[in-house]
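[Q] Does anyone have a clean structure-token version of this?
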Amino acid sequence: MTRQTETQATEDQAKAGAMIVPVTLFEQNCTILWHEPSKKAVVIDPGGDVPKILEAVKQAGVTVEKIWLTHGHIDHVGGAAELRDALKVPIEGPHQADAYLLAHVVESGARFGMTGVRDFVSDRYLEEGEQVKIGELTFDILHCPGHSPGSVVYFNRELRFAHVGDVLFNGSVGRTDLPGGSHETLIKSIIEKLLPLGDDVGFICGHGAGSSIGQERRTNPFITGEL
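[A] Here you go.
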């Protein structure tokens, strides 16, 4: 790494901070992401265990201004209504195509023995090409259906960073055997929307360790076989 690259990496690191809070039996990566100078933060995919999320927010010393959702599955939205009430902040995302999932959170939760969850409506559904902000950090919205009809990816061009939800994983891709899922559509989303972002883009995903676009392009068996 050159000195210039090191300097840039240090500057980027100073602009943003992140904390992953694994929640519920699904070990879903609820993510607290913030703009470092202002400490303004967003909680991405509060799937449950809201007291645990609130404690993590307190430990991080940040002020949450929004909740962002990558898609509508129960393990990602189970705590959204409760957290919105606790923090008095709006929910943004996912795409409108997942609105039906948010309307059936209680029903979905019952299948997995999750109680205390609530159906809700997002304050703002997101479309391809729109942007969302937290502090001075701006994220582009990519609509990436396949895992669910309304899955979205949040991409910060300046930091070369994305939160991809369950679209892409380290060594795998999102499951497509749930209602509204399509493996063909998911692979198309990955190849046409995510790979063009650049190999240097790092990402946090909905479960497990993060990775980079380049790493997955080279080694992910679900992608290499399609290229």
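[Q] Thanks! Anything notable?
[A] Residues 1-8 have pLDDT under 50 and may be disordered.
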